[in-house]
Write a structure and sequence with these properties.
This protein has 260 residues and is α+β, with helices and mostly antiparallel strands. The protein has helices at residues 14-37, 44-57, 125-143, 151-165, and strands at 61-62, 74-78, 81-83, 97-106, 109-118, 168-170, 176-178, 185-189, 206-209, 212-215, 220-222, 229-231, 237-239, 242-247, 250-253. Strands 8-7-9-14-15 form a five-stranded antiparallel sheet. Strands 1, 2, 4 and 5 form a four-stranded antiparallel sheet that branches. A three-stranded antiparallel sheet has the order 3-12-11, with no helix packed on it. The protein starts with 13 loop residues before the first helix and ends in a 7-residue tail after the last strand.
């Protein structure tokens, strides 16, 4: 996924943001169902089947299926897998950290979010902390997504939480992105940066913020399947993501269940 200097930011009207909110709710509901489905013994292919039923059952279309040939509805990345893991017959084991990325389309508009779920009722504290730190960094980035701020303010806020939490790596090879009538749009949204620098944030921008955090080195490689991204040192990673609209009243998370 590359971005060019000539790419333009897609500014959404309030009505278009409402359509994205509908797509976002489908994603949120799907991830909620998957979060309770992640138990030892389930396969990632079974998780994909659940997601497929949720998305189509809501009258939406999966964003991921067929995207550059991607063969599934969700990405399921386990332990040292960072992103883009392909669902398969792999069985989830007790204590595994499963990052699930999901996207849906409603009336041509996309929603995109990711969660990390530990397949245990008694998770290892270090793994729980990894997920908690990643999620907290996402929250900090969202808080900085205010009109008049700069893109660097988002990255700086995410980075500060991660750096302040201990010896964690911030994956730089993969970043967040604009989203709207396409899943991946300009501008890129790095999970690192300097406050006050970069593109100015405007009302009507919608961004997918998605920190990917590792225990140890942030260096990654892509496996032979051309999709699955893993840490080079074998340490575990966590991935959290939300689709966020920049509005006059501040950042609004679109990928949430509004009934909760």
């Amino acid at each position: 996924m590359g971005f060019r200097k000539k790419d333009r930011v897609q500014i959404k009207s309030p009505q278009q943001i409402e359509l994205m909110r509908i797509a976002g709710k489908v994603v949120a509901d799907t991830l909620q169902t998957l979060s309770v489905s992640v138990t030892p013994g389930i396969t990632t292919k079974e998780l994909d089947a659940i997601a497929r039923e949720c998305i189509y059952g809501a009258g939406a279309t999966p964003s991921f299926l067929g995207y550059y040939g991607y063969p599934a509805v969700i990405c399921t990345s386990i332990n040292e897998e960072v992103v883009h893991g392909i669902p398969s017959d792999r069985v989830v084991n007790e204590g595994d950290l499963v990052s699930i990325d999901c996207g849906a389309i409603v009336e041509g508009w996309h929603g995109d979010a990711a969660i990390s779920v530990i397949a245990s009722t008694n998770p290892q504290p270090s793994i729980q902390k990894l997920s908690d730190v990643t999620r907290a960094s996402l929250a900090a980035g969202i808080e900085a997504a205010v009109a008049g701020n700069r893109m660097g303010d988002i990255g700086s806020a995410i980075q500060a939480v991660i750096r302040g939490a201990g010896n964690y790596g911030i994956v730089e090879d993969y970043v967040g992105h604009g989203i709207g009538t396409e899943m991946h749009m300009y501008p890129p949204v790095p999970n690192y940066g300097h406050a006050g620098q970069g593109l100015e944030l405007q009302v009507g921008m919608v961004l997918a913020l998605e920190p990917m955090v590792t225990i140890g080195s942030p260096e990654v490689i892509t496996l032979a399947d051309d999709w699955t991204v893993v840490t080079t040192d074998g340490n575990w990673a966590s991935h959290w993501e939300h689709t966020v609209a920049i509005t006059e009243s501040g950042p609004q998370i679109l990928t949430i269940n509004t009934n909760n």
